[in-house]
């Protein structure tokens, strides 16, 4: 297969998931996209299982390129794969994906229709190893994640960019510098921040479908929360303007006794806190056995918050440092100044054209001298565009619009009546 024909490069970082990776590679052989225009790059990152033996014996009907590196993490593996790609479109897939036959084609078509976009593919979970409340919790999280992106008024933010199934132009990837290799988790979030700052548009591609063979258990989730706490501080240091958009900001608003206790143990008594966290984890089993899902959910939230704070404590040591860190948030003057005022008396079409032309971070919406509402600035979120306006008006501001229409109708009736007092019963 000629390198000159390649237009799409699928990049797969992998670590000790031989069986899962083989399933993915077999699924790629069924793609409807021309296979002579496709290359697949696998980067084995510190694999000590049978991954390399399987790859060397694998005989695909597409161009497969295999690279190996010491365990440097998924960000480094993706960057390494991208540096060797010859396609002008990069498609990143995690090794636990099982793509449908049209996945590659769906990604490529989006980039043929639009410039400067990142395509986010659809990948609902397959939960074969989980059970009970935890399985319900995982499924609900993934369903909500994709359902939000389906809404026409949704403004994509940095947390919408997950690298399990995503595509972008090779040139764009190179210009934005790839993934931050200092991050063990949330490297996709940080990359998403830089893409949005560069003016990129995110597009949800439902047809770019892959089954996600999710293998997480509770221990893995707690460990990941710990690393997420560390990563979010690193992201906030690099991007102070998005600090208020980090999960830490909403968690700090919780001031009830249980949350204060969680913070106390995470920052001042971590050894005892770790012991208690693992002890309380065992209570999830009897709570589920007694079908006390509300209590189970509450305890799980407490434990997740504890491990998130533990990760933060590794970076900031004490609570005073956390408070100083939060004060660094500068919802920057750039964002605040990039606000426009729109008068709908000129028509919705004109308002949409103006949003597409000026791409503001926020907007004040009026109808004549009536205030309809304010669309506030949101850090690490795409700018307002024309297609956002009508859904926002129909959902967030429907009551205000109906009230204004009622006032205008009443005024018009009063004006047209020869005896205005007759309108009063």
Structure description:
Helix content is 50%, strand content 17%. Mean pLDDT is 91; it is low at 420-425. Strands 1, 2, 3, 4, 5, 6, 7, 8 and 9 form a 9-stranded mixed beta sheet that branches. The N and C termini lie far apart (84 Å). β11 and β12 form a beta hairpin. With 425 residues, the chain is an alpha/beta fold. The chain has 3 domains: 3-215, Spore Coat Polysaccharide Biosynthesis Protein SpsA, Chain A; 220-327, no CATH class; 333-423, no CATH class. The protein contains 18 helices and 12 strands.
Structure characteristics:
425 residues, alpha/beta, Spore Coat Polysaccharide Biosynthesis Protein SpsA, Chain A, 3 domains, nine-stranded mixed beta sheet, three-stranded mixed beta sheet, 12 strands
In short:
By secondary structure, the protein is an alpha/beta fold. 50% of the residues lie in helices and 17% in strands.
The total domain count is 3
CATH architecture of the largest domain: Alpha-Beta Complex
Number of helices: 18
Secondary structure: number of strands = 12
Distance between the termini: 84 Å
Percent helix among the residues? 40-55%
């Amino acid at each position: 297969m000629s390198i000159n024909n390649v237009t799409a490069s699928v990049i797969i970082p992998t670590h000790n998931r031989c069986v899962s990776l083989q399933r993915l590679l077999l699924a790629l052989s069924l793609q409807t996209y021309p296979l002579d225009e496709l290359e697949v790059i696998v980067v084995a990152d510190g694999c000590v299982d049978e991954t390399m033996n399987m790859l060397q014996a694998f005989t695909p009907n597409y161009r497969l390129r295999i690279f190996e590196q010491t365990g440097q993490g998924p960000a480094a593996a993706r960057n390494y794969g991208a540096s060797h790609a010859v396609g002008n479109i990069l498609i990143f897939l995690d090794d636990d994906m099982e793509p449908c036959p049209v996945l590659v084609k769906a990604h490529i078509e989006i980039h043929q229709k639009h410039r400067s976009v990142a395509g986010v593919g659809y990948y609902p979970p397959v939960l074969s190893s989980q059970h009970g409340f935890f399985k319900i919790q995982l499924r609900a999280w993934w369903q909500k994640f994709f359902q939000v992106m389906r809404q026409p008024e949704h403004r994509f933010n940095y947390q919408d960019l997950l690298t399990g199934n995503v595509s972008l132009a090779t040139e764009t990837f190179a210009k934005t510098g790839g993934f931050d290799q200092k991050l063990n988790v949330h490297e996709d979030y940080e990359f998403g921040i830089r893409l949005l700052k560069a003016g990129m548009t995110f597009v949800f591609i439902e047809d770019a479908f892959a089954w996600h063979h999710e293998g997480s258990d509770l221990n893995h989730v707690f460990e990941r929360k710990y690393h997420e706490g560390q990563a979010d501080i690193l992201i906030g240091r690099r991007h102070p303007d998005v600090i208020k958009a980090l999960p830490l900001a909403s968690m700090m608003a919780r001031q009830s006794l249980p949350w204060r206790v969680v913070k106390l143990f995470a920052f001042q008594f971590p050894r005892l806190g770790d012991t208690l966290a693992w002890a309380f984890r065992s209570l999830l089993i009897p709570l589920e056995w007694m079908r006390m899902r509300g209590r189970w959910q509450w305890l799980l939230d407490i434990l997740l918050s504890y491990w998130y704070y533990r990760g933060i404590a590794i970076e900031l040591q004490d609570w005073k440092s956390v408070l100083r860190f939060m004060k660094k948030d500068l919802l920057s003057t750039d964002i605040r100044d990039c606000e426009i005022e729109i008068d709908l008396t000129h028509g919705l079409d004109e308002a949409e054209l103006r949003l597409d032309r000026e791409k503001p971070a926020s907007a004040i919406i009026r109808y004549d001298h009536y205030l309809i509402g304010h669309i506030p600035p949101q850090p690490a979120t795409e700018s307002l565009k024309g297609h956002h306006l009508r859904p926002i008006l129909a959902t967030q501001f429907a009551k205000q619009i109906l009230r204004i229409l009622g006032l205008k109708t009443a005024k018009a009736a009063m004006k047209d009546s020869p005896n205005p007092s007759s309108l009063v019963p």
